[in-house]
Amino acid sequence: MLIKEVAASLYPWDLHDEGVDHCVDTLAEHANVNSVYLVGIMHKEKRPLRELYYPHNPKRKFYMPEDSCVYYRLDQADFTNTPLKPIYSSVDFLKETDWLDTLIASARSRKKKVGVEISHTIFDAKIARRDFPYLMQRKIDGTMLSLLCPNHDHVREYIRGLFHSSVKTHDVDFIQSCLILFAEGGKMGWHNHAVADEKELHVLLNTVDGGCFCEACRAKAIAMGYDWERIVSDLRQLNQIRSGAELTDAMGKKLLEQSSLPATALLLRVPSLYQWLEFRQKSITSLFRDIYEAVKSANPLAEFRYNTYLKYPELSGLDFAAIRPYIDSIRESDYSEMWGNPDQLAAKRQKILKIRSGIGYEKDVIAAIDVRPNVRGESNEDIIKQSVKLISNLGVDGLSLGHYDEATLSRLQAVKSAMEQSEMRLY
Predict the structure, then answer these.
(1) Cβ atoms within 10 Å, residue 223
(2) 85, 75 Cβ separation under 8 angstroms
(3) Which of 97, 143, 204, 344 is disulfide-compatible with 339, CB 3.0–4.6 A?
(4) Is the peptide bond before 178 cis (omega within 30 degrees of 0)?
C-alpha cells in the first residue's frame, strides 16, 4: 500500500537537548519519517509520560512543561479582539528561540514536510480560572471546569488567532490540533482506557456530567431556537439519577444499570438529551469552520489536521461527517500498542474505519503508532509490526509516531521493518 507520509512529533526541549538535526535524522533513518511537527503549545504533563526517565536525552532525565505556553512567535495583532493573549515560555533555555522556525529550517534542508501542533489546552488553567472565570466551561450544577468554552466569543476569537497567526507567520505545511472540545463527562476518559463492561447507555448518560452549561452556551442555544430552560431542567433530573443523589434517584440508577434499555430508547424518552447533544455538535462544527477559514485565509495551501484522541469524540461534540468540509485530514491517535496485546488492536481498526466512514476518501486519515515501551515497560517490537500490518489493509494515507522523546530506537526500527514487510511504501 502507498502512503503519503510518516509523521513524528517533537517538543522544543527535545530539539534543545538532542539537537534539531539529530532528531530529524534519527527519525528519518530508523522509521522512514518524512514529516515532522513541533508540539508548539503543550498541555501540562510530565515528559516522558509513561516511563520514569528519557531513553536517549543527553541533558535531563525528565521534563515538566509549563501549562499551555507558546514556543514560537505569533502576531499580537491577531489577538486584538479578545482579552486572552498568548503566554510565552519563561524557561531560560527555551524562551529566546523560535522553536518552530528552528525545526522548519532543519526539515526544509532535508526536504521534509513540516507542521505545528496546538495541543489539548490553549491557555494556562490557573490563570484562566483566576482572571477569566466567565470564559470557563460549566457543569450543569454550575461547577467551573478547567476548560475554556468554545461558544464564548472571546474564546472563539483567541482560537482563531492562534491558528491564523501560526500559519501566517511560519512556513508550515500543516497545523494539527488535539484541542479538547466540550468536557465529555463521567468516567469516559481517553480512548485507550478500555472498560470491559461498558454499555452504550452508560456512556451516553455520562455526558450530562460534562459541559457546557455556561451563559454563552445558553445565549447561543436560545438564538438557535432551542428551549434551553427545558433542556437544563430535563438533564438535571437525568444527572441526579446518574449520580444516585437521593434514594429514589439511586433506585432509578439501578434500574437503568441493570435493564436492557438501549441508548436510543433513552434519547426517545428524553428528547432534551438529543437536543443538547445536537447543540454541542453544531457548536463544534462551527468552531471547526472558523478554524479552517482562519488557516486557509493565512495560507490556502496549509493543511488543517485534527488529532482525535477520545474513544467517543461524538460525546464531546465532534461528528466526523459534519466537520468533513472543514478539515483536510484526521489523525486517529489510538495507542493500543501500549497494552502489548494484539487483541487490543481491534479498537484501532474500528476507530480508523469510523473516521473513514465520516470524512470519506477525499480527506486523509493518518493512523498513529505507539513507539514507546508498553505499560509494563517492555520494548515489544512485535506489537508494532502487527499494528503496521493491520493498518496496511485499512487504506490509510499516512502513519504518525507517538512519541519520539520516549521512543526506543528498536521500536522506531520496527516501524521501518514492518512497513517493508507489509509492503507499505511512501510515494
Answers:
(1) 9
(2) no
(3) 344
(4) no
- Torsion angle in degrees (nearest 10) through CA of 414, 418, 421, 427: -120
Domain ranges across the chain: 2-194+284-426
User: How many secondary structure helices (H) and strands (E) does the chain include?
Assistant: 16, 13
pLDDT tens string 310-320: 989 999 999 99
Q: State residue 196's pLDDT score.
A: 45
Cβ-proximal residues to 302 (8 Å cutoff; 6+ apart), any chain: 167, 172, 173, 174, 175, 295, 296
- Give the tens place of pLDDT for each residue, 151-210: 999 999 999 999 999 999 999 999 999 999 999 887 533 344 444 457 888 889 999 999
- pLDDT (tens digit per residue) in 247-283: 888 888 888 888 888 999 999 999 999 999 999 999 9
Query: What dotted CATH number matches 2-194+284-426?
Result: 3.20.20.80
Do strands 303-308 and 329-332 pair parallel, antiparallel, or not at all (unpaired)? parallel
| Predicted model pTM | 0.94
User: Which positions ≥6 away from 167 have C-beta within 8 Å?
Assistant: 175, 294, 295, 298, 299, 302
Distance CA 191, CA 376 (A): 19
**CA gyration radius for the chain?**
22
Helix (H) or strand (E) segment spanning residue 325: none
Which of 421, 401, 423, 376 has the alpha carbon at shortest distance from 30?
401
What residues have CB less than 8 Å from 45, skipping those under 6 apart? 65
Write down the pLDDT at residue 188. Answer: 39
H or E element, residue 384: helix 381-391
pLDDT at 92 over 70: yes
- At 72-89, the pLDDT tens digits run 999 999 999 999 999 999
Cα 383 from chain centroid (whole Å): 23
In this structure, what DSSP letter does residue 266 have?
H
